[in-house]
Amino acid sequence: MIQIFVMAYIHNGNNEKTSAKKKFLQNQSTLNDDEIDLNRQSTNVTLLHKKDTLLHGIKLILVIFGLCCSVFLVSLDNSVVSTALPRIVSDFNGLNQFALVVISYIITEISFQPMYGKLSDIFGPKVTFLFAVVVFLLGSFLCGIAPNMISLIIYRAVAGIGGGGILSLVIIIISEIVSIKDQGKFQGLVALCYTISSIAGPLVGGALTDYVSWRWCFLINLPTGAIAMIIIIFLLHLPKPTGSLFDKFKRIDIIGTIIMMPSTVCILLSLNWGGSVYAWNSPVIIVLLCVGILGYIIFGLVENYIVIEPIVPPNLFKNLNVVSCFILNFFMGAAFFSYIFYIPFYFQVVKADSATQSGLDFFPYLLTVSIFVTLSGQLFSRTDKISFRSVFIFASLMAIIGSGLITMWNENTEYIELIVCMIINGVGIGLPLQSVILCVQCLTEHKDIASATTLSFCFRNIGTVFGISISGTAFNNKLIQLLNTLNLPSYFSTQSVYTIQSLPSDTRTLVIDAYILAFRIIFELIMLFTVLLFITSMFVGNVKPKHK
């Protein structure tokens, strides 16, 4: 998932290079599949790594370790919280705010994410990276001492400000300290780090929740983050951008940021509140949607015509293949993270799992995703004969099959059946999860790689919020509708899943059946996302990885 293949193609012979460049310039307005190779040959002729920034030996190993620690803590945070959330919302009696804990983090993550690429250019990747880690750790500490649900939601938003930059900045730093030919090797290490943290997250989260306290699901980030910061401070030395501090601040796209952030918040709040807090046709939802959409339109115009150094380069959206990858990433985020946050919840309600056991039950899915994320990176680093589109199409078909099977889950489904369904879906999600980022990087010029990478993560996170919001709204509406038809005792509360087990046997069966039907709505929506994933894959050009 966290990879970057940034390579320069140096031609032999001036005539061949000149001819290729002329042909590219004549056809750039109608870029198609056959012309992608010309784009790569004519635009990537600048050496991307200066010798004085490359690291070697033990120093390189330690810096990579520090960067992997930061990747570990961010990806661990996401999967740990998903397992702990049922206990958290039960302790705070806030099941109706279940999705807000996730969405508050992602709202700020998305809003600040596009800025980090430009901030890296202005202040340098090292300083920007350290800033992101400090903010993330501050938010994690505050979450660990949160006294109520509202505080937790606010503090998760603080953590999201930092979390939005860590992953993309790791990519940028690695591209500076590692030679082109070694990119695949070190990206594999980062992918392995993500694999380990994804697998460990539900287990760690479940164990901490059951045997210590869910608060340590947040506080555990502090020592790992401290290690990463110490290593980067003392061992990573990159050239500092020129100019005074005042000049650097002047380069920040303040106008674009001011427009984009509230627009994003309006869109995401409308998605989360619609159908749950307010009716979809209520004035509040309509106003939020209109303000958000209008804000994005104004943001696009400002970035294209007014701002000198936009945080979102408009030229990226003039390439159909790049746009297709962005949209593909959107639906992938919607599908993948909806599973991550709702399947452990399903196991705790329907199978009466503890937090630890739900993490163990979910283990096959995350393991499969992690394995195929790593395999896809190795595949594209070893061969340039296979196109990204062919992998995307195959993967999306697997995701559709797996999602369709998951919609048939019920209280009598055997665990081996659950495993098979999760493995099939995990293959479909895992293969493109990382390689779609690589595809975007192969399609963009070197000067736009940082922005394109952060935008790719941004689209994935927007899809995540969209998927979780829509799924959560549909789930809550269906569950309330079904439970209202039952004669439930006064002590039963939908705000805590643990009261289900205290119900009489017959009533408990009816309540669990209601939850199963509500979960099925979520799984059907996810299947729709995978179908849209397949359709979008068809529009990605015949792009192949760069190896020269």
TrEMBL record:
GO cellular component: plasma membrane
Keyword Transport: yes
Major location category of this protein: membrane
MF annotations from Gene Ontology: transmembrane transporter activity
Family matches, as SUPFAM superfamilies: MFS general substrate transporter
Keywords: Cell membrane, Membrane, Transmembrane, Transmembrane helix, Transport
Transmembrane segments annotated in the record for this chain: 57-76, 96-115, 127-147, 153-174, 186-207, 213-239, 251-273, 285-308, 320-342, 362-380, 392-409, 415-440, 452-475, 514-540
Record-annotated Major facilitator superfamily (MFS) profile domain positions: 63-548
Membrane topology: Multi-pass membrane protein
Family annotation (Pfam families): MFS_1
CDD domains: MFS_Azr1_MDR_like
Protein name: MFS general substrate transporter
